[in-house]
């Protein structure tokens, strides 16, 4: 099946931003300074991932509902499990034993951290791998999304008003809790202010709202894409997103309150614009990056390991550190995807085929 190049390109953008956010910059070259700027706001790549996940996963549910007038929640969650669990559990076990037996690891992994990661509560409790909090958020969201759709179907409320109200509710809840933290605490604390599921569900559900509009309100999407002020809104979105790279979240605590609210909206709007750009020249330019983006899940899981290896191998940083870090994370991520993730997805497709493949607006292998 043909993949959507634009969405895979956005996956690449997301994983690249996150990788740079975790990068080690020691020098003062032009490249070092560019990475320093991107590193400040690279964390926002997770917001892009959240919007993409909400859009793609809910799109499958919505398409299933359109085709059959129903939704098989158990099949949905089983299919999600086939996608997420195998590579995830291999990673957390591998990183745990590597950390236990490696002499160069300063912070040894704990059984408590392994347990919290195993049951997807690592965004509320201790964890061994600092970047896995986002996987816990997504896992919580998938179960919540299945329940929400079942309730909407039961009460015949699968309509735009319902999705808008749910999004507004989640947005207000997220802002409210983050505002409380902002006024209660004076220090920066990433786990406290950024990783809780109820702080971030609005980002994922904004993707759900977009999926609903794409499937049921196509005229509204057309209106947005043809709006005379589209360029203005694109520029405004870019300007707002640029604040992530200007104001360091460690020193500007207000970033946790407002940027987490408007990042998904801006990324979501740009996503809608980009996935509708079908010019051949644009698609050719982004195709190599989109290819890497195809394997973003495995790359995301394993990239911190290669960052740590690169830091020990190239203590002075520089171009060789960057080359090793990115190339090894990309190559190994691709190998793991092809050897573990995709073969298991093939098994999933054999025994638990999707009910939503007919005439999908955007087909995504692996979802």
TrEMBL record:
- The name of this protein is O-acetyltransferase OatA
Q: Which UniProt keywords apply?
A: Acyltransferase, Transferase
Q: What is its EC number?
A: 2.3.1.-
Segments crossing the lipid bilayer: none
Protein source organism = Mucilaginibacter gotjawali
Gene Ontology terms, cellular component aspect?
membrane
Q: Which domain of life is it from?
A: Bacteria
Annotated GO biological process: lipopolysaccharide biosynthetic process
UniProt GO MF annotations: acyltransferase activity, transferring groups other than amino-acyl groups
Q: Name one Pfam family in it.
A: Acyl_transf_3
Task: Please name the taxonomic classification of the source.
Answer: Bacteria, Pseudomonadati, Bacteroidota, Sphingobacteriia, Sphingobacteriales
């Amino acid at each position: 099946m043909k993949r959507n190049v634009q969405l895979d390109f956005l996956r690449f953008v997301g994983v690249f931003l996150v990788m740079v956010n975790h990068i080690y910059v020691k020098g003062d070259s032009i490249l070092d300074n560019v990475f320093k700027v991107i590193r400040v706001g690279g964390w926002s790549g997770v917001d892009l991932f959240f919007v993409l996940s909400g859009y793609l996963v809910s799109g499958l549910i919505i398409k299933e509902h359109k085709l059959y007038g129903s939704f098989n929640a158990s099949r949905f969650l089983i299919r999600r499990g086939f996608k997420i669990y195998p590579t995830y559990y291999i990673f957390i076990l591998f990183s745990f034993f590597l950390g236990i037996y490696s002499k160069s690891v300063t912070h040894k992994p704990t059984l408590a951290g392994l347990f919290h990661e195993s049951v997807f509560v690592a965004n509320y409790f201790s964890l061994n791998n600092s970047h896995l909090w986002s996987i816990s958020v997504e896992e919580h969201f998938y179960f919540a999304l299945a329940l929400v759709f079942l309730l909407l179907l039961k009460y015949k409320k699968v309509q735009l008003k319902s999705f808008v109200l749910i999004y507004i509710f989640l947005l207000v809840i997220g802002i409210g809790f983050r505002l409380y933290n902002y006024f209660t605490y004076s220090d920066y604390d990433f786990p406290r202010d950024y990783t809780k599921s109820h702080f971030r569900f609005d980002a994922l559900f904004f993707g759900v709202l977009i999926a609903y509009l794409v499937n049921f309100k196509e005229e509204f999407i057309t209106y947005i894409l043809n709006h005379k002020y589209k360029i203005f809104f694109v520029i405004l979105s870019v300007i707002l997103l640029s604040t992530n790279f200007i104001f360091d979240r460690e020193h500007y605590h207000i970033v946790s309150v407002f940027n987490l609210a408007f990042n998904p909206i801006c990324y979501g709007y740009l996503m809608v614009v980009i996935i509708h750009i079908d010019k051949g020249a644009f698609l050719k330019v982004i195709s190599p990056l989109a290819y890497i983006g195809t394997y973003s899940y495995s790359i995301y899981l394993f990239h911190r390991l290669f960052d740590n290896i690169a830091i020990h191998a190239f203590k002075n940083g520089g171009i060789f550190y960057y080359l090793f870090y990115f190339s090894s994370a990309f190559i190994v991520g691709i190998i793991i995807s092809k050897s573990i993730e995709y073969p298991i997805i093939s098994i999933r497709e054999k025994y638990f085929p999707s009910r939503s493949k007919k005439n999908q607006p955007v087909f995504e292998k692996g979802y």
